[in-house]
Amino acid sequence: MRSRPLTRLLTAVLCAVGMLGVAGLSACSSSDASAGGKITIGFSAWPGWNVWQVAQEQNLFAKNNVEVELKWFDVYTDSLNALATGAVDANSQTLNDTLMSVSGGAKQTVVLVNDNSTGNDKIIAREGIAGVGDLRGKKVAVEEGTVDHYLLLLALAEAKMTAKDIELVPMPTDAAVAAFAAGRVDAVGAFAPFTTKALERPGSRAIATSAEFPGAIPDHLVFKADVVRDRPQLVQGIVNTWFDTLAWIKENRDPAVDIMAKRNAVTTDEYKAYDSGTTIFTRQQNVDAFTPGTTPQHLNHQARLASDFLLSTGLAKNPPNLDGLFNDTFIKAVPQ
Known about the structure:
Blueprint: H1 6-16, H2 21-24, E1 38-44, H3 51-57, H4 60-63, E2 67-73, H5 76-85, E3 90-94, H6 95-103, E4 108-117, E5 121-125, E6 139-142, H7 147-158, E7 167-170, H8 173-181, E8 187-191, H9 194-198, E9 205-209, E10 218-224, H10 225-230, H11 232-251, H12 253-263, H13 268-272, E11 278-280, H14 283-290, H15 299-312, H16 329-332
Parallel strand pairs: 1-2, 1-3, 6-7, 6-8
Antiparallel strand pairs: 3-10, 4-10, 4-11, 5-8, 5-9
Subcellular location: Periplasm
Organism: Kibdelosporangium philippinense
Signal peptide: 1-35
């Protein structure tokens, strides 16, 4: 989940929809990943996405007759660009970032809810700041446009405040955490595993988390729309593999945690601390989320709220088209 410098993402989206012209084509990358039987999936540092690493190391994709190449991205932004330009067929990304790409013209389809953030996105403040109301006039570092920026605004609104009541310091998430740890800002918005570093500052504490805003930060497997259209059997195999992997993890918890902790370069104890902050979705929770509705559990409802956020902050110039964005075909076809 996680963060996104907007200029690079905009370039990627323009590449994807063919709007840069001949002179701009050198900025766009191409991939033959859609050829043959291989599917390329991008993922990056977030507890809900490390399940893919387990699937690969336990050879579970082969069980469902799909050939998958996983691409790990140290920088989450790069994975967004990779999907927008076609360098990967699918990516693990947040709803907010998917909506941002779609608003720029990218054709993408959500086929799976990996998880909801239920505490692993946090607003962390220095000693002496007891709650969100104490942020008035304080320096708060966060990456603009990210889900943690969204979380900050939700928390401020609940405290009957707005961004005008604080001094917002925009910077990439890793830099924001470093600035907080060094004492240069009073608070920071960040996600796991960056939250671990932020909380090492003596006296620091989380004053707001995603646990307080159920459903606001969902994470997904998102495909290029043409892959879903042209290669549905492979998409189905990958969605099936996700649930096979969850079953394997349930039966082999310790080795699974070892795999996932190593992938995120944290200790197993640190990784276990993330458990309650990321709620992995069952098949039924997926079905419920894809069903249209007006409560926090429904994706269409959260998409409307997130779209309003992107438009109100000026991060998106056009409202994203939600028609066809959520495809529940594959979830419903998962063997029970």
